[in-house]
Each structure stands twice: as structure tokens, then as C-alpha cells.
Amino acid sequence: MTTVNDTALNKNDTARNNADAVPGRSATAPAVRLDGASVRFRTKRKDVTALADVSLDVARGEFVAIVGPSGCGKSTLLKLVAGLLAPSAGTALLGGEPVRGPRRDIGYVFQRAALLDWRSARRNILLQAEMRGLPAPAARARADELIRMTGLDGFEDAYPHELSGGMQQRVALCRALLHEPPVLLMDEPFGALDALTREQMNVELHRIWRETGTTVLLVTHSIPEAVYLADRVVVMSPRPGTVTEVIEVGLPRERAYAATLASTGFREATGRIRELLGAAGAHD
């Protein structure tokens, strides 16, 4: 397997600046660190271990994808990073700071856009500013920038029912990025889209990530999506979820979609992931 090339190791300056601007954060610490993290749930019938002894570092400005069987704890891992769940053992850190509760310095994109039907695209994006008490003029300027960046020009005043599924997810992405979070968590954000729209969103997300320098942690069931988008792909085992292997994708950061999918590096990485999951052809 080839390793990430020198270009991929040069982290975006914007990511460094965003991280350095957060009070109490070390400029040298990983953006995300899980150290021996385990999560156990108690149900009426038995105790369930969702994650077991997961350790992972995500560098600033890096794009890391997580793949694995259904129920292996991928979404649970994101919730640990977001502070929505506390680890039963081990630790979760953001920028070197222990996660001790829900974090306001992240962005989160879910499978469903979860837009408010009675608010326009722009006002759905600005909901983030209202909830955080951000200055209105700066928030509007940032929203306009994101609308241009995601190709939503001309649809700012459209309501969710007037937008396609892909456009709704673009609005959700803008909303998550409005406050310029140093870390963006994405939980199967394109799973409900048709294949063509999903490809287009992959290309757009990759471009936006390169432009913003945000650290991204993406959960997906699609192996090609993971390899196309990420610097590294974390392959997880069936429950209780553990890290089976971390794959260095070894592709340049600027990736033409068709050429990337036809490349030797792409085929090697997807083949290795399928081999690890033991289900070649069972994923997209």
C-alpha cells in the first residue's frame, strides 16, 4: 500500500489558524484524540459494549473516514467526540482538551438535513447564529460566503420543500460550518441521496474541505466514498467496535473524481478495506 504523499502531509494554514484561535487549545495537539475509549450501555435485558478500547489521533486539517459493519459503534464514536456521550473507560480530547460535555466548537451534519420547514435556506443556516448568539452582520456575511461556496446562489430564499435532497444537505452543511468550527463531524450525510447526487456531493465536500481547512471526521457505509474523500480510512470491527486497521489512502489532495476512481491507489485502498471487512461487493 502506498503512503500519503508529501502534498497530503501539508496541513491547510486555515486549519492551524482556526485551532490556534480556540482558547485553551494546544497548537501541537491532535485535533481529535481517542485514547482507549470504550462505551457500554445497559439495556433491560443485558449490558452492551458498543466500543472497546478505541485509540485514534486525527491531525488538524485532516480528513478521516470511518467504515465498518452496521452496529459497530461508528456513530457512537462521533458522539464521544461531540461530548454527547461520556466514555465508560478511556478519554476523548479535542485539541488536547478533555471532552467533558456537549461541545459548542464543532460542526455536526447528520444523515437527514433536519431543516425547519417554515424557514428559508438562508434562515435555516442562520439558525446556528441565533442559537449561539453570534453577531448578526458577521453571521449574514458568513452565510452569504457559504451559500456561494456550496452553489446555493439563487436558492437562498427557497424553503426546504422547494429544494432537492442534495440541496437540503448543502444547507445543512452551511449551517454546520457557519461558526467556522475547527472540527466537522459527519454521520452518513449522503446515505439517503441517489447515486448521482451523492457523487456530486462528494466532489463538493472535498472542494469545500480543501478551501476551509476544517478537520473532518466522516462516518460512511460507502467504501468508495471513504477512499475518495479521506486522507485515511479507519476500518472498524463488528461490535464491540475496535479499530481493525487504519488505511493511508495515498492520493493527492486535489482529486478529479473519475480519474481518482480509475487510479491504482484507489483500487488498492478499496480492495484492502473490502478484504478487511470480509464482504467484498457488499458495500457501495
TrEMBL record:
Q: What are this entry's molecular-function GO terms?
A: ATP binding; ATP hydrolysis activity
The record ties this protein, via SMART domains, to: AAA
Q: Which UniProt keywords apply?
A: ATP-binding, Nucleotide-binding, Transport
Tell me the Gene3D superfamilies matching this sequence. P-loop containing nucleotide triphosphate hydrolases
Q: Write down the PROSITE patterns for this protein, in alphabetical order.
A: ABC_TRANSPORTER_1, ABC_TRANSPORTER_2
Give the matching InterPro entries. AAA+_ATPase (IPR003593), ABC_transporter-like_ATP-bd (IPR003439), ABC_transporter-like_CS (IPR017871), ABC_transporter_ATP-bind (IPR050166), P-loop_NTPase (IPR027417)
Return the annotated region ranges for Disordered: 1-26
Q: Which residues form the ABC transporter domain?
A: 32-263
Q: Could you tell me which Pfam families the record lists for this protein?
A: ABC_tran
Renumbered to this chain, the Polar residues biased-composition regions fall at: 1-17
Matching CDD domains, A to Z? ABC_NrtD_SsuB_transporters (cd03293)
Q: Which domain of life is it from?
A: Bacteria
Q: Which PANTHER family match?
A: ALIPHATIC SULFONATES IMPORT ATP-BINDING PROTEIN SSUB (PTHR42788:SF13), TAURINE IMPORT ATP-BINDING PROTEIN-RELATED (PTHR42788)
The protein's name: ABC transporter ATP-binding protein
